[in-house]
Design brief:
The protein has about 290 residues and is an alpha+beta fold. It has 2 domains: about 200 residues, no CATH class; about 70 residues, Alpha-Beta Plaits. The chain is built from 10 helices and 4 strands; from the N terminus they run H-H-H-H-H-H-H-H-E-H-E-E-H-E. It has a 4-stranded antiparallel sheet with strand order 2-3-1-4, with no helix packed on it. Strand 2 and strand 3 form a beta hairpin.
Length: about 290
């Protein structure tokens, strides 16, 4: 196996995930915060804490948005909890994404005057931009931490749940506080943001699971199967085949996975059989008892 190629591939994914974090932060700071709306999730809770510190206790933080710093601090115990459930590589990449997101959320200057005057338009634009940012992070097998990790864990455990559904459910706490603390318009626009944001993230996340791959090999199919399940966490079905041209027996393995996992799948298979070949079918619909993951 080419470990140098693996290393470079992981670095590229991490860099793109950081870029996704920048897009998310820009969407929030440039379109949502200027209207004093709340994003929901853990960041929404941090924004509420910031509002309490600034407006009710009179603590000033200058041009730095302390919500980003609070977001980083609260993520630490979440990482410790999720470590044994999600895995070291995912947690490390998420930690990098969260650290850089904290910097972006703290350093991207919130405009004193909204860039888009119309609150609804600004709300929808912010949802689309930040949703795309989170989608990019997920497709690079990372996350923005906070409720992203919790939602992914729940959607993985319970088949009927998606990331968006879990995200909306946990946001009820944030919006209940908004209802009793601020005027009704803040609550309405914040809910609109969350609904559009969750729809965008769900669309990008669920589209990842879209590839059926057939693997043809004359080598040890059981070894390939074990390696796929160990490294990708994907189930494998295989059966006996016979080559019409070569007249030789072979094994045919079937795997349903994300298009972003194809590269890793090929590395695993080629480490066992360099002569194996693949047939990939994009856009398949996967339903039933199937593991939802990044």
């Amino acid at each position: 196996m080419n470990f140098e190629l693996v290393r470079k591939n992981e670095i590229a994914r991490a860099v793109i995930a950081v870029f996704g974090g920048f897009i998310y932060s820009a969407g929030v700071n440039l379109f949502i915060v200027p209207h004093s709306f709340y994003t929901g999730g853990l960041l929404g809770i941090c924004q509420l804490i910031r509002t309490f510190l600034v407006d009710f206790l009179g603590i000033q933080f200058g041009s730095v948005d302390v919500a980003g710093i609070l977001y980083f601090v609260i993520n630490i115990p979440i990482f410790l909890f999720a470590y044994k459930y999600i895995g070291k590589r995912f947690i490390l990449k998420t930690a990098l994404t969260v650290v850089t997101m904290t910097l972006f959320l703290s350093l991207i200057v919130v405009p004193g005057k909204p860039l888009v005057e119309d609150a609804l338009t600004s709300c929808i634009i912010g949802a689309i931009v930040s949703g795309i940012g989170t989608g990019i992070i997920f497709t690079m097998t990372s996350s923005g931490g906070g409720m992203d990790i919790m939602a992914l864990m729940f959607s993985k455990k319970y088949k009927t749940l998606s990331f968006g559904k879990v995200n909306i459910a946990v946001n009820l706490i944030v919006y209940a506080i908004c209802l009793f603390t601020f005027n009704i318009s803040v609550l309405v626009y914040s809910v609109i943001y969350t609904v559009f944001y969750s729809m965008i993230v769900d669309k990008m996340h669920q589209q990842n699971i879209s590839v059926q791959t057939l693997i043809f090999t004359k080598k040890d199919a059981e070894k390939i199967e074990a390696a796929i399940m160990k490294n990708l966490g994907r189930g494998v079905t295989y059966w006996n085949g016979h080559g019409g041209f070569t007249g030789e027996d072979m094994k045919i393995l079937c795997v349903c996975l994300s298009k972003y996992e194809i590269h890793d799948l090929k590395k695993i298979v080629y480490s066992v059989d360099k002569q194996a070949f693949f047939i990939e079918q994009d856009g398949v619909k996967v339903d039933g008892n199937f593991l939802k993951k990044l």
